[in-house]
Amino acid sequence: MRPDDWHLTHDLDTFLRRAGDFLASSPALHTVHLTVLDNLRRRGLHVYGEEAPLFGVLERGGAVRAVSLHTPPYWINLTSLTGEQADALAVRLASAGHRLPGVTADRATADAFADVWQRHTGAGADLWKKQRLYQLGELTTPEPRPEGAPRIATAAATDRARLMSWYEEFGASIGEHQLQDAGALADARIAHGGALFWETPDGTPVSLAVVTPEVAGQVRVTTVYTPAHLRGRGYAGAATAAVSRAARAAGAREVLLFTDLANPTSNGLYQRIGYRPVADFTVYRFAE
User: Fold this and answer.
1) Which residues of the chain have pLDDT under 50?
2) In the Cβ-directed half-sphere of 211, how many Cα atoms lie within 13 Å?
3) What would the pLDDT profile of 169-221 be if each residue is shown by its tens digit?
4) Which residue from 44, 69, 81, 246 has the least number of CB within 10 angstroms?
């Protein structure tokens, strides 16, 4: 395999024509690619940062075999690769002078790419996070169910402000700096009805669950957050179950979410609701 077998482009439409069917053929495993690409299509190529995204397609025998997606300043996101495919991509990117802050992919692919990237660039690679992808099976409402009810966030100033604040608090709680503008992120979720509050009987929001727009029949729960002083009361489970039920009712065939394997509480909670493991993913950070 030659590095030139990887075709790189900054053109979103060209990339979607070549790789769209491949990604849609396995929507669960390709959920991040699908939702990121949908976000780029809806909100513009610079929604994640000033630098243009870089798309990669590996074709052999007239068929797409693998895909890469890099939206700076975020890490590169890869579909499943063999060691040979990972090596060819690393050579192709390194020889063109591309700099990567890290990689995320299924565990075997991330391990392989981190190894060859270090070898070809001299960059250090630190294992940052181990994740598990879950898919919703039979939805079960967690018991005991807390008092209150779900409510979709609206464009009201109070809802928008709370979303912005909780997005920032959520990022800080998981050790991720919020790179996207919190206001724009809140506006996007409100626009498609994807942000749900769990409210107490007096109408006070106490927890948040957010889901992506549907693409290729799948949606993904991306943010579940309860302020620290309100945790341990069942609010997160109730919000997650409610947003999952709403996604199913809206027609999503697959409802997905990622967890940090270092957090046994969230992994246990989602399994009690009805989420079942699909695959493990790994995130490496690169340092020059």
Assistant:
1) none
2) 27
3) 888 877 665 556 888 889 999 999 999 999 999 999 999 999 999 999 999 99
4) 44
Q: Are 85 and 109 in contact (CB under 8 A)?
A: no
24-41 burial: b if 16+ Cβ within 10 Å, else e: eeebbbbbbbbbbbebbe
Which helix (H) or strand (E) segment holds residue 242: the answer is helix 235-249
- Whether the CB-CB separation of 224 and 118 falls below 8 Å is answered with no
Provide the phi-psi class of 167: left if phi over 0, else alpha when psi is between -120 and 50, else beta.
Answer: alpha
Q: How far apart are CA 67 and CA 73, in angstroms?
A: 19
pTM, to two decimals = 0.93
Asked whether the bond before 73 is cis by omega within 30 degrees of 0, the reply is: yes
Q: What angle do CA 22, 40, 174 make, to 5 degrees?
A: 95
Q: DSSP characters for 99-134?
A: --SEEEEEHHHHHHHHHHHHHHH--EEEEEEEEEEE
| Residue showing tokens 């206001």 | 183
Q: Are 185 and 222 in contact (CB under 8 A)?
A: no
Distance of CA 227 to the CA centre of its chain: 22
